[in-house]
Amino acid sequence: MKLDIKNLTLAQLQAEFRKIELPAFRARQVFRWLWLKGVHDWKKMSDISKVLRTQFDEHYRIGQLKIKKRKGSASQGAVKHIFELEDGNSIESVWLKDGPRRTVCVSTQVGCSLGCTFCRTAQMGFKRNLLAGEIAGQVLAVSKGQAERITNVVFMGMGEPFLNYDSTLDAARILNTDLGAKIGARKITISTVGITEGIRRLAQEPEQFKLAVSLNAADQKTRERLMPIARRYPLTELMQAVRDYTVVTNKRVTFEYVLIRGVNDRRKDANNLILLLQGVPCKINLIPFNPFPETEFEASKDADIARFSKWIMPHLPAVMVRKSLGANILAGCGQLAIGNEAKA
Ligand code: SF4
C-alpha cells in the first residue's frame, strides 16, 4: 500500500523525500500544494516536473476527506460538517464564529471509548483513531467553504485527543506550519478529560500549543458520575499534573466546566471549585450543558449559570460564560455523534 503523505508533518515529509534523494525544497513545494492550496491531484502541481509527479504517484497517495453534509450557517454562528472517511466511517467538525474568532472544533477519533455520561459522542462507542491527515484535513475542508480565514483550532470534537497523542500532535504541527494553514500555536488548543500522561507529554513539547482540561466537577464522586475515566485519573492526580504543567510551561490552563442542573451547579459545587483551583494559573470556561435526545440531564437555567459564576468570580481568575453556539443543530459541546441524526 502506498504511503499517504497527507499524514506527514513538513519535517516528516522532508525525511521521507530524503529517502528518495530529493532536496528539502521539494517537500516544501508539495506541502504547500497540499495544505495551502488544498490540491489533492499530482497533475495539478504545476511547478513540479511531469517526471517527478509520476514518481510521486508511484510511491505515494494523497488521502481525501469528503464533506457529506453541512448544517447551519455562518450567519447563525455555527456550521456542523459531517465528513465521510475513506473507510466509510463518519466524523464531525464544527465551524464557530465568536467575536473576531473563526474556530474549527475538530475530532480526533471516530467515536469515543470514555463514556462521559453528559456526552452524545459516548453513545457511539469507539471505532478507531483518526490519522493526522484526517484530523488536520477537517480544518482544510471547512476553511474551503468559508470566506473568512480560520483563526483558531480546538481539539474538542469527537474523541479524546490524548488517547491518539501522536496523530493529534502531528495534526497540530501540520496546521501550525507557515506553508499551510498557518494557525499560530497559541491559537491551537488541545482539550483532554484528564489523561495525565498526555498532559505531562504536552508540557515537554517545544510548541506553544494550549491545554484545556474538561473538568466538569470539583469533587471526585460527581466527576466519576459524569466522567467514568476519573476513576483511573483521580482529581488529586489530575491537579498535580496540571500544576506541574503550569510550572514547566509557564502557561495557564483552561478548565472547561459544563453546567448541569442540580448536578454540578449548586453552591457546594462552586465552593469545591474555588478550593480546587486555588493558586492554579488558569481560565475557567462555564459552558451551558447542551441537551440531546437520549440524555438524562437537564441544562442549568440562565439564572443558575449567572448565580454560579457570581459565586466563583471573586475567588478565581478569568471566569467566562461561553455562549452555547450550535446547540440547535446538535453541534454544541458534547453533542457530536454520528448515527443518531434521525432521532435528533
Ligand atoms: S466528552 Fe470527550 S472524552 Fe468524554 S465521551 Fe465525549 S468525546 Fe469522549
Low-confidence stretches: 340-344
CATH architecture of the largest domain: Alpha-Beta Barrel
Strand order of the largest sheet: 3-4-5-6-9-10-11-12-13-14
CATH domain fold name of the largest domain:
TIM Barrel
Count of β-strands? 14
Helix amount, in percent? Answer: 25-40%
Question: Which shape, going by the Cα principal axes?
Answer: elongated
Helix-strand pattern, N to C?
Answer: EHHHEEEEEEEHEHEHEHHEHEHE
State the major sheet. 10 strands, mixed
CATH class of the largest domain: Alpha Beta
- What small ligands are held by the chains? iron/sulfur cluster
Structure keywords:
disordered C terminus, 2 domains, 10 helices, 14 strands, 344 residues, ten-stranded mixed beta sheet, binds iron/sulfur cluster, alpha/beta, DNA polymerase, domain 1, TIM Barrel, elongated
Explain how this protein is built:
- This protein is an alpha/beta fold and 344 residues long.
- The strands form 3 sheets. Strands 3-4-5-6-9-10-11-12-13-14 form a 10-stranded mixed β-sheet. It has a two-stranded parallel ribbon with strand order 1-2. Strands 7-8 form a two-stranded antiparallel ribbon.
- The protein has 2 domains: 3-61, DNA polymerase, domain 1 (Orthogonal Bundle), CATH 1.10.150.530; 66-329, Aldolase class I (TIM Barrel).
- It has helices spanning 10-19, 24-35, 50-59, 132-144, 165-176, 196-203, 220-226, 235-249, 267-276, 302-312; strands spanning 3-4, 60-61, 66-73, 78-84, 90-98, 101-105, 109-111, 126-129, 152-155, 188-192, 210-214, 253-259, 282-288, 319-321.
- Strand 5 (90-98) and strand 6 (101-105) form a beta hairpin.
- The chain is elongated, with a radius of gyration of 21 Å.
- Iron/sulfur cluster binds next to loops.
